[in-house]
Amino acid sequence: MSTDFPPHFLWGASTSAHQTEGNNTASDLWALENSPHSPLGERSGDACDSLHHWQEDLDLVAELGLSAYRFSIEWARIEPVAGHYSRAMLAHYRRVIEGCLSRGISPVVTLHHFTSPLWLRAGGGWTQDEAPARFGAYVEAVRPYLDGVDWVCTINEPNMLAIVAAIAANGAAGSAPAHLPEPDPRVSAALIRAHHTARDVLARTPGLKTGWTVANQPVHTLPGAEEVARAWRAAREDTFLQAAADDDFVGVQAYTRTVVGPEGPIAPGEDARRTLTGWEFYPGALEDAVRHTAALLPGVPLLVTENGIATGDDEERIEYTRGALEGLRRAVADGADVRGYLHWSLLDNYEWGSYGPTFGLASVDPLTFERRLKPSARWYGEIARAHTSAPSSASATSPARSAR
Q1: What is the pLDDT of residues 115-173, one digit of tens each?
Q2: DSSP strand E in 31-77: where?
Q3: Domain map of the chain by residue range?
Q4: What architecture (CATH level 2) is domain 10-397?
Q5: Sign, CA torsion 220/225/229/232
Q6: 107 and 100 Cβ atoms separated by less than 8 Å
Q7: Is 306 a catalytic residue?
Q8: Strands (E), 106-229
Q9: Residue 39 has what DSSP assignment?
Q10: Which residues form the signal peptide (predicted)?
């Protein structure tokens, strides 16, 4: 692979709290999973027990020679009861940050990755008037613990959160891109307000780069469908990208594409190559997403915060990732200001209802929680090392600090 990446380009992997930590009992997703008639096939349970095995996770990142690790701070653990913050959990996440810094890894922190405290959902969720302010108060509680962190994502995939709200409200079916309804407008507006509130809070700490991540919908438009495709993408993606126009960066997250015809999205044909999630195998999604985002938000740096494939064939993971990175290299060579690539995911984990889709660079034994790096992880680590010519910003400029 060519070396057309900037010298300080971040190479890393991503996780999220609920999907890896386990026993997130104060969250809305835990309640949904464990309800008598849950629509989810499996419970998260212990997940990867990363709440206790986080040091092993960081050791994997360091062993691979990666320079960044994206993880989320779980709001439901920090504020299990409205207005009451857990000092113990704040100190726990501070230790994770320090663990990154001591290993020369740049921590990329996400403050909301799909899950909320159950009390927020019980009070009306994101549509209650005070929800953005409550999120801002939580962010203020976390802010003093972010010393040494350069990158903070406020909310992960707000467009998907609003789409899920629309599905829940209207009974729309299907998670494939071709079946996604328009996002719930009230939830969308609330999430944008919450993001801007959090951004204002985080701006009080000099040096923090603040943004949010968007689930990109790379669109391939068939002849005669230009206006239909534009409207489809505008509702599900561009509204949320435009809300990031004044951010320090925006997170790009892409996995597959959507083909749009004159009548709307078209599902892949029966002979299409698919992943374990049923999505079309399409490594070019990342290049498409980066080019679209860069064109829509000129001057806003991009960080690829998620990209990967659900597959049980590790050679297929390498094939997909190689194609995605080649496309990313082309976009960067053509001028896209991309600051890093974070693979989804470091670990095989709970994928919102099932442990079946394996995205991980490492497998996790569900009984012993032993982590085992896959050949794709070693391959990716070599790619990262080959393109790294300087120490990470974490090791160069961010000394570890004591927990408060």
Answers
A1: 999 999 999 999 999 999 999 999 999 999 999 999 999 999 999 999 999 998 886 55
A2: 68-72
A3: 10-397
A4: Alpha-Beta Barrel (3.20)
A5: negative
A6: yes
A7: no
A8: 106-110, 151-156, 209-215, 219-221
A9: S
A10: none
pLDDT, tens digit, for every residue of 67-91?
999 999 999 999 999 999 999 999 9
Token reading at 352 = 């919102």
Q: Residue 213: CA atoms inside 13 Å, Cβ hemisphere, count?
A: 31
In this structure, what token pair is assigned to residue 239? 């509204």
Question: What is the 3-class SS of 288-328, one letter each residue?
Answer: HHHHHHHHHCCCCCEEEEECCCCCCCHHHHHHHHHHHHHHH
Distance CA 336, CA 354 (A): 35
- Rounded CA-CA distance 400/102 in Å is 6
- CB 64 within 8 Å of CB 375: no
Mean pLDDT of the chain: 94
Catalytic position from the list 98, 157, 182, 237:
157
Whether the predicted pLDDT of 390 surpasses 70: no
Tokens 């469908």 label which residue? 225
Longest Cα–Cα distance of the chain, Å, equals: 60
Strands 106-110 and 68-72 come out as parallel
Confidence of residue 7 (pLDDT cuts 50, 70, 90): confident
Q: How many percent of the chain have pLDDT more than 90?
A: 91
Residue position matching structure tokens 């997940």 = 47
Per the structure block, which two tokens stand in for 236? Answer: 């599900």
Strand partners, 85: none
